[in-house]
Structure formats: C-alpha cells, structure tokens
Write a structure and sequence with these properties.
Elements (H helix, E strand, L loop, with lengths): L2 H7 L4 H4 L6 E2 L6 E2 L18 E2 L15 E9 L5 E7 L5 E5 L6 H13 L8 H7 L8
Antiparallel strand pairs: 1-2, 3-4, 4-5, 5-6
Pfam families: RNHCP
Protein name: GTPase EngC2
InterPro entries: RNHCP
C-alpha cells in the first residue's frame, strides 16, 4: 500500500465508502474471517459466532476508543425484510445494528431469534394464572 492510500484509509468515514478487504481473526472463537462470501463489501462481524469489535462510533468511521467485544443479543427485521443483528458492547454497553451477511451461521441466528421464546421474562409455569388475571380462561391450546 502506498503512502497516499495508507493515509486515506485512516480518514474519518473512509470505510463508509470503501470496501474493507482485510481478513481478521475473531477475538471470541478464533476463526480466520475473510471478506469473500459475505455478500457485502463491509464485513464487520464473525460469520461463525456473530461477534464484532467496538471500533465505530458511527458506521464506518473507526473512531471508537473502546475496542470491546460486541456481543450479538438480538435480531430484527427491517422494513424491506432484511435481517439485522443487534450487538451490545461487553465493555461500555453501546448498542449497534449490523446487516446479516450471506455466510452467517444460520443456527446461531435462529438461536438468537428464538431466545425470547425459550427464555421468557416470567416463569412459564405461571402462564395459565397470568392469562386468568388478564381476563382469559387460563387454558393453553
């Protein structure tokens, strides 16, 4: 990389408009992550464990000083039907959303999506009593 291009890569917002073709090793699972296969030119998380690093304050700016592990905590579906992963930084608690990549682990994505159903915020054995309290008959059918 010549000196001019090296300087350019550190300008604020550079990665918003330029592809990031760098490979990296995931800090959580140790997998070597390559940009090919992602279906995007902006690879920002591990396709195996879906974790990322807290490097951006705004997408692509590389201005965050934190550097913490961004843990996948949820998925959501955008208006256009595209899935996105919600990440929360283990160090500072900051949250961000990242597009799902073509080669992301489908089992990990589904386990994150199903988490609210498999770990409800109340004891599942009390659901009948709760539905009766809300005016239902309490039957689960």
């Amino acid at each position: 990389m010549n000196r001019e291009n090296k300087k350019k890569s550190f300008e604020k917002g550079y990665y918003k408009t330029h592809a990031c073709n760098d490979s990296f090793t995931c800090k959580v699972c140790g997998r070597v992550v390559i940009p090919e296969g992602a279906g995007t030119k902006h690879r920002n998380h591990c396709p195996n464990c879906l974790t990322s690093l807290h490097v951006d304050d705004e997408p692509g700016d590389r201005q965050a000083d934190c550097g913490g592990i961004m843990e996948p905590i949820a998925v959501w579906i955008k208006k256009n039907g595209e899935w996105a992963i919600i990440h929360r930084c283990r160090r500072c608690g900051d949250m961000s959303s990242n597009r799902v990549a073509a080669d992301d682990n489908p089992l990990k994505l589904m386990s994150i999506a199903m988490k609210p159903l498999t770990s409800p915020p109340f004891p599942i054995e009390r659901i009948e009593k709760m539905t009766r309290l809300m005016g239902g008959d309490g039957a689960i059918e």
